[in-house]
Write the structure tokens for this entry.
Amino acid sequence: MITSPGLWQWLPRLLAGLYALFLSLFAFDSWEGVGFWEGLAGFLIHLLPVYLVALALVVAWRWRALGGLLFVVLAAGFTLVFGWREPATLLLLALPPVVIGGLFLLDAYLSARRLRPRY
């Protein structure tokens, strides 16, 4: 198993940022066939999942275990709201936060283990 502290510290952060960028792509369909102000309002509303992912990332940056749990809760919320009937949607929207949350939890576990005194 790879135990490099830098890898486990930065991999979930990088994946969370990439996931937020991926989710933001879905907001661009709100501009289709509407005026500027309606499109802007729809765009900002469609970015709500990205705001939640960014908030979870900010929390996870400081408190890894809490952030990991937040990402798992986000996955459950995305499952209930977006894709519990369609397996492809479920995999695209709910699996990445579960993986990211698991990586944050693993990083928290490994860092706590490194900080414990050895007898």
Remarks:
- The chain has a mean pLDDT of 88.
- The radius of gyration is 17 Å.
- Residues 83 and 92 are 9 Å apart (CA to CA).
